[in-house]
Write a structure and sequence with these properties.
The structure is a homodimer. By secondary structure, chain A is mainly alpha-helical. Chain A folds into three domains: 51-88, no CATH class; 93-510, no CATH class; 515-664, 2-Layer Sandwich (Transcription Regulator spoIIAA). Chain A is built from 26 helices and eight strands. Chain A is elongated and about 105 Å long. The interface between A and B is large, with 107 and 108 residues. Chains A, B: One of its GO terms (molecular function) is transmembrane transporter activity.
Chain lengths: 666, 666
């Protein structure tokens, strides 16, 4: 609320805030001439809100800041119902305006990503220590569910490299995939089920923001590390090594590789692998150079598979020690409801693994969804996406699929191939279905080496060195986090890398909330602007006044620090002032513009500060407290302690008060 | 760095920042007249810091913000050594100037707190399910160590109610104090040892700020709940109930009380207990009414003990069913080094219990230390205090003590009795020693009921209903946290209450970092000040411009929210503008003064925002980015995207740019 004080209205002209014209020398602000006429604004007290209003507005801002039900307002019940259904199944919305021209785009895109996903699926299922058909199953059911429930138009659904690797290495700890085959498989479905439950629950409870707690830097590091680990794992297939370590760290892998260099490598395999790897990388390069040729890298994998399979078949290279896929089960996904553990000790294990993999899957899918939504300029509701992804994995877990999510590389291809709606996923799914029904036997002679090459060329893109360089440039601490996660994955294991990424992210948040910045403000000569003296070295100290800005809410987590830090600024300034023989400090102005909120601990800290200053004979002044802050200062009666006359709208007003005071007491 | 642009120096007079005199009507800021002569300040680019400087300054601010070694700078090695020793043992500092007049104060204070602590110690050890002598032991050794190492002048060291209760209920879960007496005792010493290790480690690693993560509100609730629980536990002694529940929740306790109402209560016990409880409360009331009589409540407990013991002895009331202490072991603390578990399964349990109790002990001690330090205006180094408290508990665990810390009630008495230095703790410790050596047999006939009354009257002060009322007034969410912790302790258990307190505190931090406030700014008519339109309803929108202030650093945890929220402000404003038939929005100003920092996620969010706005034909302008922010914007080349000409020192400058632009394109 603005108070105009008639008594003062005639005075204080330039005082209309941070205001005073001056082409004069900088010392003008220290001149004591009583300032001429104008309005004086005082700090506004916001209208008092009731408890219910306050509560609901906090809840809304935290969980429903995007007002997901905005459109439903002021509608009839049947319309609301229809809209609600449409919110859950966006297909009911875009489906009505779907046209043939859109289908053309989706068909091309769907065929392209299908040709990309089939060899990848077979390879990724190996990362999860599952038989190849499970990868294909996971590219059939989940995309269909997503097409009905998802709201991203560009995402391509299916198994992805990092989640497969993570799932595999977490499952392997609980059950051996060689010895306890059945148990391992059941645990995989259980984990998938709980991954879906976790995802759907996060979305439904609108806790989607939790995935934002993994920092960008940590994700870049983790993904890069996982990509390197995955590529290293492929050395087994690419070099044709028979006895390979079960560890994923670089040291063990390299030992396996060197250890088998004399007798374990198979030159035919190596020749096939590297020829096709070169071909794939070349295709990738061509696609990158000219966006028009995006289809070259997209169809390169399936071409390689066909050529390599033909080659092996014609020359019977499998007799020469070239390992082949040998068998993929024919037929559509069998039910797996009975395989999910709903009781027993495996439930907790499955839940833990599922929750971790589910969160990582979400992080990846939501990041992809957001990227492409921003490119095509449509809004994406993260929480709704999570419900869609969760449902898709729950259904998946009952139809022999393991965790599916959005794939970076395939989504990019989908986008470039001109997809228009999630129908491209349906097309892909149909192709996968046909593959399962008809042509799986043809994969018998496909060499494992070619799958390894395809995976290596696919995951290379996850090593985002450009992002790492940018992080290095922007924030060194972030870079440390990024490298920590990267080396954690590469030298230890995926779980350790993930743990490092999460810990560093949390540590950063903790530091952020306990150690907010405080800066010393000075006057820019010739103006009434006050700015950080470090950033603006020309900013001048006001004699007898210390001005400190607190750049954060003052909460229990930082209130002691803030109080101590302000006092330290004061002590430092007192030292400087006495060393330079300047007048002693008699005012401390705390600029509170950035202090968005304060709690009881913060109020105690301010009170302690006030008392401490009183003892030293220094007056505490506040400048521009925000609405939440002024309200709380008032209800705790702190404004009365400090004095309402000592709270100002701007730093300039406060400084003017100080200088006029010090003039009065010579 | 301030740039003065000669070309513009002749122009833009009022433009000298948020500056323009006006006694004219508010619309002045929308006039397009080119502003007259003056200096133009540009956003300052701070001098580039090297990686090492940046790294060390972050480390220093996080861990050494109080520059603990400041005095040691520029000193000879021997002086440094001496100063280092003195840092560790402050007694070497104040000891040199210790005088007789100081000792007088300390003697009186020491005797007073000794008379208070002896009956309390005996009672508190019962809360921890330990024999009474262990309470006395813990008031002998730890205060001596603290006197040499601690830096608070007012804290009174010894066992305290809440930690005793917490320790007892955590230990009881691992070993039964009745059946496995020896194991229980050993585990108690192990927990004490690890509590000390935890405390010392936190202090030594300068991680003391971690205890700030328990919010004030949560502590108030937890303490209040613990006090109620402790008082309820005393009903056993006060009513003379023989079969009492082992649970601590109010429901079980009340069942025990009602269940034994007919045959279990002992009227002689009840009479003694309530007579003395009335006496103690009256003494407390007198002390509160007139600070001069602070000694009345201080000596009331020991007086009660003497009178009640005499009464029981003379009338042989113990034959009437009045329970008595019966036996306290005579003699000084025996060694207990051999009782601490250093190997085996109890180490982990002891560590867990010790860490929790140690943290709570620290919270209490540091809060007390800070309170009294602020009253007497001296500085307290929290981390140094932790090292002192930790060492004291480590030594304590080896000399048959259980966890000691600072006591709220005794420290207050110590302060009021005029203590000057930690010597008052030494005096108290000496009195306790004499008690152990000489008069423990005299406690034989002390009725348990009187100890119960003393504890009830002591813990009543922990129910800080005034603080709870203030919390209710200041912050409703905080109040919910406070009540959650309170009811958690009272209705469930101390651990559950503590868990609730910690969870709520963390949830608050999470919400704080994920949902920062953003506000819409408007112009205060007649000035060039821009303020929150909600707080200042008179603030006016600038036609065609939306001004949003972001009140937080933009980090990975909130970058998506910030971007979406800014866009929502824009959409809302667009709706309003089109409804009112006003000119369309063509500029979005983001006021960044409160944005202290930004990371790569934040930069991506700004970039996305910029691209999104470009598509809508809206220009993004930034106002007053801080030094860290402008540096990062520049190194990520985002300043080039947005255009250096679109980054301003003040909102007023940015708005002036917008209005002159819209004038050019009619």
């Amino acid at each position: 609320m603005v108070h105009r004080e008639p008594a003062e209205a005639a005075a204080a002209a330039a005082a209309g805030g941070e205001t005073s014209i001056s082409t004069q020398p900088p010392s003008s602000s220290q001149q004591a001439a009583p300032p001429p006429a104008v309005l004086v604004y005082k700090v506004g007290y916001p209208p008092r809100r009731s408890l219910a209003t306050e509560f609901t507005s906090t809840l809304r801002e935290t969980f429903f800041h995007d007002s997901p039900l905005k459109q439903c307002k002021d509608q009839s019940v049947s319309t609301k119902l229809q809209m609600g259904l449409q919110l859950l199944f966006p297909v009911l919305g875009w489906g009505r305006t779907y046209s043939l021209s859109m289908f053309k785009g989706d068909l091309v895109a769907g065929l392209t990503i299908a040709s990309l996903c089939i060899p990848q699926d077979i390879g990724y299922s190996k990362l999860a220590y599952l038989d190849p058909e499970y990868g294909l199953y996971s590219s059939f059911v989940p995309p269909l569910i997503y097409a009905a429930m998802g709201s991203s138009k560009d995402i391509a659904i299916g198994p992805v490299a990092v989640v497969s690797l993570l799932l595999g290495s977490l499952l392997q700890k609980e059950a051996d995939h060689d010895k306890d085959r059945e148990e391992y498989l059941r645990l995989a479905f259980t984990a998938t089920f709980f991954a879906g439950i976790t995802q759907a629950a996060l979305g439904f409870l609108r806790l989607g923001f939790l995935i934002d707690f993994l920092s960008h830097a940590a994700i870049v590091g983790f993904m890069g590390g996982a990509a390197v680990t995955i590529a290293l794992q492929q050395l087994k297939y690419v070099l044709g090594i028979r006895s390979f370590t079960k560890e994923t760290d670089i040291v063990s892998v390299m030992e396996s590789v060197w250890g088998s260099v004399r007798h374990g490598w198979n030159w035919q395999t190596v020749a096939i692998a590297f020829t096709f790897l070169a071909f794939l990388l070349l295709a990738k390069y061509i696609g990158k150079r000219n966006k028009k040729y995006f289809w070259v890298p997209a169809i390169a994998p399936v071409t390689s598979v066909i050529l390599a399979t033909l080659f092996v078949y014609l020359f019977r290279a499998d007799k020469q020690g070239v390992q082949i896929v040998n068998k993929i089960k024919k037929g559509v996904n069998p039910s797996s409801v009975h395989k999910i553990y709903f009781t027993g000790p495996f439930v907790a294990k499955g839940f833990k693994i599922g929750a971790v993999c589910g969160m990582i899957g979400l992080t990846e899918a939501v990041a992809i969804g957001r990227t492409f939504a921003a490119m095509k300029d449509y809004q994406l509701d993260g929480n709704k996406e999570m419900v869609a992804l969760g449902t898709m994995n729950i259904v998946g877990s009952m139809t022999s699929c393991y965790i599916a999510t959005g794939s970076f590389s395939r989504s990019a291809v989908n986008f470039m191939a001109g997809c228009r709606t999630p129908v491209s996923n349906v097309v892909m799914s149909t192709v996968v279905l046909l593959t399962l029904l008809l042509i799986t036997p043809l994969f018998k002679y496909t060499p494992n080496a070619i799958l390894g090459s395809i995976i290596i060329s696919a995951v290379i893109g996850l090593v985002d060195y450009e992002a790492a360089i940018l992080i290095w440039k922007v924030d060194k601490m972030d870079f440390v986090a990024c490298m920590g996660a990267f080396f954690g994955v590469v030298f230890k294991s995926v779980e350790i890398g993930l743990l490092i990424a999460v810990s560093i992210s949390f540590a950063k948040i903790l530091v952020q909330v306990t150690r907010p910045r405080t800066v010393l403000l000075g006057n820019l000569p010739g103006t009434t602007i006050y700015r950080n003296t470090e950033q603006y070295p020309h900013a001048r100290h006001v004699p007898g006044v210390v001005i400190v800005r607190v750049d954060s809410a003052i909460y229990f987590s930082n209130s002691n620090y803030v109080r101590e830090r302000i006092l330290r600024w004061l002590t430092d300034e007192e030292d400087r002032v006495s060393a330079e023989g300047l007048p002693r400090i008699s005012f401390l102005v705390v600029e509170m513009s950035p202090v968005i909120d304060i709690d009881t601990s913060g109020i105690h800290a301010l009170e302690d500060l006030y008392k401490n200053l009183q003892k030293r004979g220094i007056q505490l002044l506040l400048s521009n407290p925000g609405s939440a802050v002024i309200e709380k200062l008032q209800s705790s009666k702190l404004t009365e302690h400090i004095g309402n006359g000592h709270i100002f709208l701007t730093v300039a007003d406060a400084v003017r008060f100080c200088t006029s005071k010090s003039m009065q007491e010579p």
